[in-house]
Amino acid sequence: MMRRKRKPVILILDDQAGERAPVRRLLELDGYSVIEAASAQEATEQFEKKHPALAIVDVKLIENIDPPDLSGILWITTLPETFPVIVYSTYKEPEVWREALQHRKNVYAFINKQESVETLRANVKSALLEAKPDRPSMWARVLLFFLFAIPSAAFSWYYWKDFWLAIVAAVIVGALVEIIRLFF
Fold it and tell me: Which residues contact 152 (CB under 8 A, 6 or more apart)?
């Protein structure tokens, strides 16, 4: 039996439910899992719980504020640097686009809400294809373990002639490789 590949989870951050709903339907028709958030705080909670692969973010999350609200852009700056974002807003002013790019190098696209849904669909697909995963694949991790842990176990066995000490050394080296990978 062939396993179906799961589509990525996409987070939509927009304060207006009427603006989120059509985007959600479009993405779900394409087979994506979609989570919604109406505020930056709710988006952060959803981001930490669901680990989406992409965020579609409105620039203005709070209505009727002077000067113009850029809270969506501020939320984008809290994301990991490699996380792909599509800014989806009614702002047409280039200053807003420059502001988004100033804070974030991984803003994949700036799409006006009045543009066609095909533009959004194409940009979502492209952004997900270009996004690099934060974690290496399981096979890469297994290979790293064998490259470092097995030689350390062999070394321990050769010098100390103790099977369990060799196993403990292999596990410790494997754990150290994982810890180092987290920071580099």
Answer: 169, 170, 172, 173
Q: Which tokens hold the place of 115? A: 């543009």
**pLDDT of 107-137, one tens digit each?**
888 888 888 888 999 999 988 887 755 555 6
> Treating both helix axes as pointing N-terminal to C-terminal, what angle do 138-160 and 163-183 enclose, rounded to 10 degrees?
140
CA distances from 21 to 11, 26, 34 (A): 12, 9, 10
User: Which residues 6+ apart lie within 8 Å of 38 measured at CB?
Assistant: 13, 14, 15, 17, 20, 61
pTM of model > 0.70: no
Query: SS3 of 89, please?
Result: strand
- pLDDT tens for 56-66 read 998 877 766 65
Structure token pair of residue 184? 């580099």
Cα 9 to chain centroid, rounded: 9
Using the Cα atoms of residue 72, residue 74, residue 75 and residue 80 in order, give the sign of their dihedral.
Answer: positive
- Pick from 86, 88, 87, 59: nearest CA to 74: 59
